[in-house]
Amino acid sequence: MTLPLPDSLWAATANPCPEHTQLRGDITADVAIVGAGFTGLRAALELSQQGVSVVVVDAGQIGWGASGRNGGQVNPIGHESPVATEKKWSKLYGAQRGKELANRFSQMYVNAADELFDLVKTHNIQCDAEQNGWIRSVHGPAAEADFHDMFKGWHDAGADIEMLDATQVEQMSGCKGYGLGWIAKRGGTVQPMSYVRGLADAALKAGASIHCDTRIDTLEQHNGKWKLTSPTGSITADQVLLCTNGYSDSLYPNLAKSVVPVISIQAATQVLTDEQSAEILPGRQTFADTRRVIYYFKKTAENRLVFGSAGITAESPSTSDHERIMQGLRTVYPQFPELKVDYIWGGRIAVTLDHLPHIHQPAQGLHIGLGYNGRGVAMSTVMGRLLAETAMGKPADDLPLPVSEIKNYPFHRFHRTGIRLLVPFKEYCDRREAQSQSQ
């Protein structure tokens, strides 16, 4: 059964999807990859270019999951300061190893956006790529201390980042009511569905095979070989990459329980008028704020505003999700109450307990990368390369983040109830803090 794509702006306007087939019969490959999103397809591209035989499978279509549903923001700044990351890893691995890992990790993050845009140029991927910078701004005074710590940490790590005062934030974004901010100049944007399809096309040209509408039911290892079985066929491979992120299921024990799949809801407005476009993000940067229930947005190539926030219900937005998105638009752009939405859709963000991406190698020849915590466009692109390198024999000690054990997220079974309770409370806190800034 074909899993339909969500009714999103990305699906409606993306470049055509490369031809692919459902897996039929029994085949062999050097590497089998589960997940035809950014991570899996970047890995397939890298491996195929090195002459490795690769088969990619996905239960849906190319980009069916988060890769085709995200906001398209290419962010070169991590979820927390490099200083905080170093402290975490120093406790786990010792001061010297923690510092070394944190330095590698921060450099990987600082260069992640450049890596994506270079990849787009190299393979001539037509995905409305723009590297005009990413603005982040404070929604209220309570967020300022952490904001300054983040700025200093990433500035010291070498990020091309510049502080903005409240006037500059308003001039560059057209937003009302924000305080100070920064611009990370290497950030930017892509049309994510066109980008993932472009990666698929490049991987196919390099020699990879892609089979969609192919759900893998079992993953077993026998005599040093892995066998992946679906209702329509099987793959026997020397190595396997699991690249399923927030859409991980029971294929490998406890993997799905190692992350919490938080729902992100996005909406695309009608094409902006000339007046609206001149005031809303005139420099075509992307934007995100410091709210607990974040607001993030950008303009598309056809001058629509795509606005996102956390969802409460499921990936198919409810009436209440639609109302929350409209309230967010009115909060950020009160001068344009006439903004109307043409598309609204949802997708999963994989959140890890430490807010860091994870690499796992739980068995010989099995490599897993996931947990992008809302920074998935750039970071999953990098993760695909890292997984390809590990499959080609790169030692774990040379990676920019540690290979870790798969651990269950505490109280994972209650995460949906927790989200339904926490999101409204966090929104209340955000509103109070934003009001204190405007007074």
Distance between the termini: 55 Å
- Number of distinct helices: 12
Determine the fraction of residues in helical runs and give it as a percent range: 25-40%
Give helix and strand order, one letter per element, not per position.
HEHEEHHHEHEHEEHEEEEEHEEEHEEEHH
**Which word captures the global form?**
globular
**Rg measurement, Å:** 21 Å
Counting copies of identical and different chains, the oligomeric state is single chain
Share in β-strands: 15-25%
Structure summary, number of beta strands: 18
Low-confidence stretches: none
What is the overall pLDDT average?
A: 93
Decide which structural class fits the backbone.
Answer: alpha/beta
Q: Main beta sheet, described?
A: 8 strands, mixed
Architecture overview:
This protein has 439 residues and is an alpha/beta fold. The chain has 12 helices and 18 strands. Strands 1, 2, 8, 9, 10, 11, 17 and 18 form an 8-stranded mixed beta sheet that branches. Strands 5-6-4-13-14-15-12-16 form an 8-stranded mixed beta sheet, sandwiched between helices. The chain has a two-stranded antiparallel sheet with strand order 3-7. The N and C termini lie far apart (55 Å).
Task: Summarize this structure briefly.
This protein is α/β, with parallel strands linked by helices.
